[in-house]
Design goal:
By secondary structure, the protein is mainly alpha-helical. It has helices at about 5-15, 20-25, 30-35, 45-55, 90-110, 120-135, 140-155, 165-170, 205-225, 235-250, 255-260, 275-280, 285-295, 300-315, 330-340, 350-355, 360-365, 370-390, and strands at about 80-85, 175-180, 185-190, 195-200. It folds into three domains: about 1-65, lambda repressor-like DNA-binding domains (434 Repressor (Amino-terminal Domain), Orthogonal Bundle), CATH 1.10.260; about 80-85 and about 110-315, no CATH class; about 335-390, no CATH class. Strand 3 and strand 4 (about 195-200) form a beta hairpin.
């Protein structure tokens, strides 16, 4: 029997409307509706087409998924988008909601095999909640800065910003990297199981910009977790984004130490002279200038000269050291799978057959390394070949 809900799930995961999918596989929109709603069995060649299009096994369409993957584990209203504009398209938001839900369910599926450690991030949230309550009469911006300062001490300690992603993964935040959209840099959310997630876009490929995205999303996770993001006015959205930007600036470039560093520069309005600070803080030259300007370390004239230089040198798109500074990548899920495969908790074959997907599917949805799967599948294949060869000795 064809399971139409599985087709609907994988279609929405990939952001296709019924009409768009119909055009892809050369059937009518009504046929797609019949597959999904009436569980009508497509022709066998269409099942293969759907399988290839979505990188799933043909059995995906005729077998039940593990129960845990069917849960509604993420509410759309909890998703905080870091996007170019206030109005993220409904289609894009729906796609990311479905993908957030799948990533959350996949995480729950994988974590079911281990005892999850206590999350440091929750202890930090409790501390910040108490702080905010005690400072409720203080200016909101000052509260944001205070929270950023405490968060840096707790999460980074004496480590540099280059360790930010790794330290957040250690703290209990699940971080994934995937292709989002040209108009969106990252998004974050809390699942119904109270696990925080950050999803990073992989379209920038620039380490220092990624650090700002991470710090920005960290603010949403720590301070905006009760906000209904799908019901904000434009003014409310801008206020929250401004708070996240202020938090990120204070977190990545702590005021006192940054002022001391910046004042050592001989030519403060020359972007090339800021490379030394970029190397230390792993933050873009443009973010460094903005931080300095808002702290009153640059005049209006110096600010104008800086941006004229940036435009003239083409630094808006690519800055000095962008190619030299290595891009940090999430490692937790790949490390967990490496452990599972190595210790025989599960095999790659079991994982793929239980989920009824291909390695490429897992790579696209959760950036699971296909080389990791290939490595352990090759080991199992070698063992099988050895067993067979021994029969002929």
């Amino acid at each position: 029997m064809f399971i139409g809900s599985n087709l609907e799930c994988v279609r929405t995961l990939n952001g296709y409307s019924r009409k768009e999918l119909a055009e892809k596989v050369s059937v009518s929109e009504q046929a797609i509706w019949q597959y999904e709603v009436k569980n009508m069995m497509p022709e066998i060649n269409k099942i293969y087409e759907l399988s290839n299009l979505f990188n799933v096994q043909t059995s995906y369409f005729i077998s039940d998924q593990p129960k845990i993957l069917k849960e509604k584990s993420v509410e759309k209203q909890t998703i905080a988008f870091r996007a170019v504009s206030y109005k993220v398209s409904t289609k894009l938001l729906n796609k990311q909601h479905y993908q957030a839900n799948y990533v959350s369910n996949l995480t729950n599926y994988l974590l079911a095999y281990v005892k999850s450690p206590l999350m440091e991030i929750k202890a930090l949230i409790d501390e910040l909640d108490d702080l905010i309550e005690s400072l409720e009469d203080l200016d909101r911006i000052k509260i944001i800065k205070k929270c950023a300062s405490i968060s840096r001490k707790k999460l980074l300690g004496n480590c540099s910003n280059n360790h930010l992603l790794f330290n957040l993964e250690k703290s209990g935040i699940m971080i994934f990297e995937k292709n989002i959209d040209n108009d969106a840099d990252a998004f974050s959310f809390w699942s119904n199981r109270e696990i925080p997630y950050i999803i990073l876009g992989n379209n920038k490929g620039i380490a220092v910009r990624r650090n700002f995205d991470i710090a920005h999303e960290l603010c949403h996770i720590l301070l905006h977790r009760h906000i209904q993001f799908d019901n904000l006015s434009q003014a409310e959205y801008k206020q929250l984004e401004n708070e996240a930007n202020i938090f990120a600036a204070e977190f990545l470039l702590p005021e006192a130490e940054f002022i001391e560093d910046f004042n050592k520069l001989t030519k403060k309005s020359n972007p090339d002279h800021m490379k030394i600070l970029k190397e230390k803080w792993f933050v873009s030259i443009q973010s460094i200038e903005l931080r300095a300007y808002y702290l009153g370390l640059l005049t209006e004239t110096q600010n104008r000269y800086f941006w004229e230089s940036v435009n003239k040198k083409g630094y808006r798109r690519k800055e000095p050291l962008d190619e030299e500074i290595k891009l940090s990548k999430p490692v937790k899920i790949n490390s967990l799978l490496d452990f599972y495969f190595k210790e025989k908790v599960m095999t790659p074959e079991f994982l793929l057959n239980d989920l009824k997907v291909s390695p490429k599917f897992l790579n696209e949805i959760a950036n699971i390394d296909t080389r990791l799967i290939d490595k352990y599948m090759d080991v199992e294949s070698d063992k099988e070949r050895n067993v067979i060869s021994h029969l002929f000795k």
